[in-house]
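As described in the Methods, two query proteins were run sequentially through the folding procedure within a single session, without resetting any intermediate state between them. The first query and its resulting structure tokens are shown here.
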Amino acid sequence: MSKTFKAYQITKDDEGQKLSFTELTQEDLMDGDVTVKVEYSTLNYKDGLALTGRAPVVRRFPLTPGIDFAGTVVESTNPRFKANDRVILNGFGVGEVHSGGYAEVARVSGDWLVTTPEGFTSRQAMAVGTAGYTAMLSVLALEKHGIEPGNGKILVTGAAGGVGSVALLLLSKLGYQVTAVTGRPQEEDYLRSLGASEVLDRQPFSEKARPLGKELWAAAVDVAGGNTLANVISQIRYAGAVAVCGLADSMSLPTSVAPFILRGVSLYGIDSVMASLEVREEAWQRMAADLDLELLESMINEISLAELPNEAAAIMAGTVRGRTVVKIS
């Protein structure tokens, strides 16, 4: 392994946060018992916030951003892994308080890693990334609630984004009738290609919600929060459920208790960062079983490390669709 490696690094001074593309050494690696040659990373909404400095995602400096990576173990003192094992990392504060995936080499705790499922390449694993893994956690939550394909339509908000695209792909493959919500009507053909049976404009969901609306959806996956989530909750059918996993619109939730106590609606919060190893392994094994890899390929936009800053600006502007994978080495 080379003594130096390429990486992005975020520093902070009195003028604010700064992003640089630089070379680091083995001495710059953080504590951990597994060293990984990073092959691919990805770009999630949280990465966009970190790279642009739009929100205080990074809380330790200097730090390499990137909340995901996939690659091959180089060295390990962790009994779960050995050299040449293929691994995936999502979350656990990586890219926030521990250096992450936008580097050719990473050192982390082996307790944070899962083995790459059989049949997945590192590129495909990062096409899934935290966004797709979060989508799978959302689907699992709805399944455990008892939502079945015959119960009625499932709503997916932010459907052209990373979480929404994979949620749509998974749900349609599992036999659910899925309605996609998007603020980009030009993406209708793309959303239908992933399995959407109906595509709705986001605007009506952005307006102030009634305490109770018409019962339209058996369940939903929401990435938006704010008025969008409030409207979704008000339209869920009796004993339905919403898996909420994002705040792209707002962190607020301007709703009432009416849907919960009059219709028995359940709200499931989806945490992808600190989920247990057992939950992670279940999600990734289900991904390997349920994801259509050909359709996954159709939503991939591959970029180089050098293109990351521009792509981060694009994801914050809401113009990125599907999944962006970053070729590292």
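Immediately afterward, the second query was submitted; its sequence and tokens are:
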Amino acid sequence: MQTFVHAHAAHPDWRTALARVTADLDARRAGRPAPTLGWCYFGEAHAAAAEPLLAALRQHYPGTAWVGAVGVGVCAGGVEYFDEPGLAVMLSELPREQFRVFSGRRPLQAERGFLPHTALVHADPSTTELASLIGELSRRVGSGYLFGGLASARQRTLTLAADGAGGGVFEGGLSGVAFDADVAIVSRVTQGCQPVGPTRRITEVERNVVYALDGEPALDCLLGDLGVDEHAPREALPRLRSTLVGLSDHEEAAEFGLPAQNPEFATPARRGAFGTETRVRHLIGIDPQRRGIAVADIAERGQQLAFCRRDTDAARRDLVRIATEVRAALEPEDLPLVAQPLALATQAATGMPPPPVGGRQIAGALYVSCTGRGGPHFGAPSAELQLLKHALGDVPLVGFFAAGEIGHHHLYGYTGVLTVFTTPV
């Protein structure tokens, strides 16, 4: 049974875009129960009309809760609207007791009859102490797992969070929707960068300036990995400017032990590639005197660090890989030996294959990708979303291009976060 539907359109007039979207949704939903939860992602051309846009959605679908955000790009199905006046909407029929909308005015917390297990989070990138707030929110959900991203816009950065108790359009802070453990999801983080050298441990650091890696001068490690000579700045500077830093916490491999505890959220590291535990940050300077490097984050002694670069081919492979992992996680389990004779007898009597055991299917999906991955980065317009559609199939999917991506309790860059809602086959 299809309980999620999506539609999308692009038009400079938000009313026209919304009319096209609602007409498509209504046609797809003919005869279905009223939706309970909706997602709305809109291009920044429509940010000035966010309040009337939300009001129109609430009027057209009374009783539906809404979450969403503005993005310099939005996506749906296999289509990207990057720097276009796009609008992407998805509706679901999730039981109301299984989710709660939250915002700065209505913080997320456990309540009678509802225990948050996972949460979709939208945030304003200008929010003070954002990384700490994400970590705190992660501790409020049972699985510790968050997914989502930072709204992106050149002018008005907005998120949406509204239900029967109120809410609306927000600037600043965090908002979103939490789900209880009965809402089954599978989520993966796909990396867009590839290491250019070994992973080393930080052994000397002052705030964001790293001075030693495995006891060696950090700048010497950087120059060695890149194969450049600091005395030849014309050749060295372009390589340095294109180099990024991958950081992971020293206890992360054990603490993130999601493969055993929550395999639906795990993306382990692979040879020559980053796993979920790595956050990519910009290299913002060097200290030739003390042989240090400055990164765009607070670093700590004991963390692991690897230099890396953006790599389109690696990003393509990793995107296909996580989508394949998601599909594999939903495939039915093998029939137990004691059930095989009955299954074979049923097949012989009816001519039909036995039903799958334990299989699930994708009901709907959300995809949040970095603004640095959108547009031409994957080689052609909508190429990233076409890859995803080919790997997942034609499933309801909406999302946006973010100023930072949220997965587990981390804030990422140059990544994509794919989350699917599943139902039994």
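The chain is about 25% helix and 35% strand. We note this only descriptively and draw no conclusion about the first query from it.
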